[in-house]
């Protein structure tokens, strides 16, 4: 039976497809848009959540690292209205007990 018939109907087969590295290998195939091979890969990809397909797409980890570097944390006000010396004095008091 063809993979495109099994994957849509069998969660265990989808899990094995991911854990054995098959989904990752599929993403690594260099294809030309509009070809039958590209269409088959799209059909296989449609059997999985978009985020897992992206995760196994070459270059995705680099794009995540770029996002980490560009990210500006939004620190809750509870933590921003205290200066490091306040925290240090609390530690000193706690240690003295």
TrEMBL record:
<dbReference type="GO" id="GO:0008017">
    <property type="term" value="F:microtubule binding"/>
</dbReference>
<dbReference type="GO" id="GO:0015630">
    <property type="term" value="C:microtubule cytoskeleton"/>
</dbReference>
<protein>
    <submittedName>
        <fullName>Uncharacterized protein</fullName>
    </submittedName>
</protein>
<dbReference type="GO" id="GO:0003341">
    <property type="term" value="P:cilium movement"/>
</dbReference>
